[in-house]
Amino acid sequence: MKKIFSVVWAVCVFFAVPARAATINIGELADRLDRIESALKGVQKKLSNNYVGSTNKPDKDDEAGDKLDAMLMQLQETEQTLRQLTGEVETVKFAQDGLQDRIDRISADMSLRFTEMEKKLQGAEEKIKQLEAEKTAAENARKEAEKKKKEQQAAAARTAKAKEQQIKEKYGKKKPKELYDEAFASIKKQNYKTAQAQFEAFLVLYPKDALAGNAQYWLGESFFARSMFSQAAVAFAEGFKSYRDSQKAPDNLFKLGVTMAKLNKKEEACIAFKNFAKEYPKVSDSMKKRLEKEIQKLSCP
């Protein structure tokens, strides 16, 4: 009987110990419950053999029997509690397994997302490097272009200065009217190259003379007559821009349109003809006919 009480007391003491479910592994808890259940079954068997199913009552007094009945009831309650706890443990384990599955799925999903983000980040970093390289190349190209432009401007300035010095040495002693007449005579003789040099000299030496607008126009004609249309366009445009009040200003603008047509720049030519009609509405009838002819030839809108 002492053994039975000892076992029962051990079970009660076990359940009296504060629960450590938060720190005990579910598997260990299940193992402990299995051992407790096995021990309880042994106690039940001993109690049944010694009291429940026996016709031989113990020789102790009724008080001892009552205590044994109370102990047996407590044991049965403990067994019921054990079954309940076992069910709860199984429920917790099932929930833990489900939670672990969710954690695994979330972990896999997050890993995939992080991998994709890392790839995108790597791609963005490579794109940034590429853009930085392109920016550096563009900046270097810009600096190089500016450097070449300055060099060209400096070279052009030196050339212009040298040319101006040559012009002064060759034509500096001539009066404006004298130089202009010589240049115009060269145009009449179709000595266009000589006329070009003479008109350029006139414009360098006497840019504000009353004949400067005429000289600019005939300079353009010296180029146009030799099919040097790009140089002619520059000369006519300069004549219209710098000498708008001169006698030859309408001729400069009109001939600019004709030269643009020669260069297959229809849009620019039509713009020049359109501006001509606005700038000079009172030109001669012959000039109006020439203008209409050129506009029709290009089918200007």
Task: List the defining traits of the structure above.
301 residues
Q: What would you say this structure looks like, in words?
A:
With 301 residues, the chain is an all-alpha fold. The protein is 82% helix and 0% strand. It has helices spanning 2-16, 26-52, 62-171, 176-188, 192-205, 212-224, 229-242, 249-262, 266-279, 285-298. Helix 3 (62-171) crosses helix 5, helix 5 (192-205) runs antiparallel to helix 6 and helix 9 packs antiparallel against helix 10 (285-298). The longest helix is centred in the middle third of the chain and has 110 residues, at 62-171. It is rod-shaped and about 160 Å long. The model is unreliable at 7-24 and 51-55 (pLDDT under 50).
